[in-house]
Amino acid sequence: MGAIEKIRENQRAKGPATILAIGMANPTNCVYQVKYPDYYFCMTKSEHMTALKQKFIRICDKSMIHKRYMHLTEELMEKHPEICPYDTPSLNPRQHIIVDTIPKLGE
Questions:
Q1: Which residues 6+ apart lie within 8 Å of 36 measured at CB?
Q2: Is the dihedral of CA 30, 34, 36, 38 positive or negative?
Q3: What's the pLDDT score for residue 18?
Q4: Closest to 44 measured CA to CA, from 76, 3, 8, 4
Q5: How far apart (Å, rounded) are the C-alpha atoms in residues 44 and 65?
Q6: Model-level pTM greater than 0.85?
Q7: What domain of life does the UniProt record list for this protein's source (predicted)?
Q8: How confident is the model at residue 24, as a pLDDT?
Q9: How far is CA 78 from CA 43, 45, 86, 88, in A?
Q10: 3-state percent helix, strand, coil for the chain, nearest multiple of 5
């Protein structure tokens, strides 16, 4: 009997991902896929990268997604400017944002 409980314990997720099992919650910020490339490049101040923007527009057109729900807002980008520039290491700040916002989805 103890072996079965140990197997179940090992199969359970630990960390922020466990909260996602509570239910389906969407962030309040909704961006339509058609407007997303302009929104993203304007927010990250990367409008000068026209070739990359055209490629991103093609990807968004082909993706069959109509809406994007996200926590990435202009206020969040102003609070964390290190995630805006192209080619900068931003994994750690993004992980800190995730740790703060995932519990709010369960509310």
A1: 60, 68
A2: negative
A3: 59
A4: 76
A5: 21
A6: no
A7: Eukaryota
A8: 63
A9: 9, 12, 15, 16
A10: 55, 5, 35
Q: Alpha-carbon Rg of the chain, whole angstroms?
A: 18
Q: Which two tokens stand for residue 8?
A: 């179940």
Strands (E) in the chain, as ranges, are: 29-32, 67-70
Residue 16 Cα to chain centre, angstroms: 14
**Residue 100, CA distances (Å) to 42, 74, 106, 107 in order:** 25, 17, 12, 13
Tokens of 52: 């990359």
**Residue position matching structure tokens 């922020």:** 16
User: Which amino acid type is present at position 2?
Assistant: G
Provide the 3-class DSSP secondary structure of residue 45: coil
Calculate mean pLDDT across residues 38-50.
87
**Cα(42)–Cα(96) distance, rounded to whole angstroms?**
23
